[in-house]
Specification:
Layout: H1 3-34, H2 36-51, E1 54-57, H3 68-71, E2 79-82, E3 89-93, E4 98-106, H4 111-118, E5 122-125, E6 135-140, E7 168-173, E8 176-188, E9 203-211, E10 218-226, H5 227-230, H6 234-237
Keywords: Hydrolase, Membrane, Transmembrane, Transmembrane helix
GO molecular function: hydrolase activity
Organism: Candidatus Curtissbacteria bacterium RIFCSPHIGHO2_02_FULL_42_15
Length: 239
């Protein structure tokens, strides 16, 4: 074969390979960027478990106070204080080191509305109780139509599957701290709204996320009640 022809073929092969490498690299970068909230959440959890890091919610604080004034020093490597982003309404799940603002009174049947809320934090369902009130306080996160849309929303509930009966969930509302203990976990079909519509005089906190993580096939419900009312019962509930 003529040398010039061979050189031309080799040059074309090199160009095609270079373009292919850039496409592969670009795809990897795009996927990593898209799913970074998930990757970050899981990586942080793995590292925390290896280090034995434990999280605790900050003490109650009024909306006019500084959390820094209440912490009384730096956190140790294995004892970290989680500060609520907004003392007016925030949630802290100590087991998974999650802390996020809660957007109040979000219409769970209006996709455009809850999509915007979930980009900023966890949504409190319109019409459900607020902390301290009798009834169900219903909080939800990342309900979306495809796996590629899930990472666009707040990743605070991605690790909710790791929360167990007896774990503590803390909600800050109007400067007050409300402690709950998990009493039950349920996996339900998306159409099951029994907890959402439940009428009760009890104070019940329900956390909802999609299950398995990154899908919209089912719902994981983590149900909790005020710590003072169930503190002596959670041991038997977990067995």
């Amino acid at each position: 074969m003529n040398y010039s022809v061979t050189a031309g073929i080799d040059k074309k092969v090199l160009i095609i390979r270079t373009i292919g490498n850039f496409l592969v690299l670009g795809t990897l970068v795009a996927v990593t960027f898209t799913f970074w909230p998930v990757i970050g959440a899981y990586s942080k959890n793995v590292i925390d478990n290896l280090k034995g890091t434990k999280y605790e919610a900050a003490p109650a604080v009024s909306t006019s106070q500084s959390f820094g004034s209440l912490l009384g020093g730096e956190n140790t490597a294995k004892d970290k204080i989680l500060i609520p982003p907004d003392p007016n309404f925030s949630i802290i799940v100590e087991k998974i080191g999650a802390s996020a603002p809660v957007i109040p009174s979000v219409n769970a049947s209006d996709k455009a509305t809850y999509d915007q809320a979930l980009k900023r934090g966890v949504a409190h369902a319109l019409g459900t109780a607020f902390p301290g009130q009798p009834g169900v306080s219903y909080l939800f996160a990342h309900s979306t139509d495809t796996i590629f849309n899930v990472p666009r929303f707040n990743a605070v509930f991605y690790l909710l599957k790791d929360v167990e009966v007896g774990d503590r969930v803390v909600v800050f509302f109007n400067g007050r701290r409300f402690d709950y203990l998990v009493t039950e976990r349920k996996i339900t079909p998306p159409e099951d709204v029994s907890y959402f519509t439940m009428k009760t005089e009890e104070q019940i906190l329900v956390l909802q996320t999609c299950y398995p993580p990154g899908t919209t096939w089912k719902r994981l419900l983590v149900i909790a009640k005020p710590a003072a009312s169930v503190a002596g019962q959670v041991g038997s509930l977990s067995r």
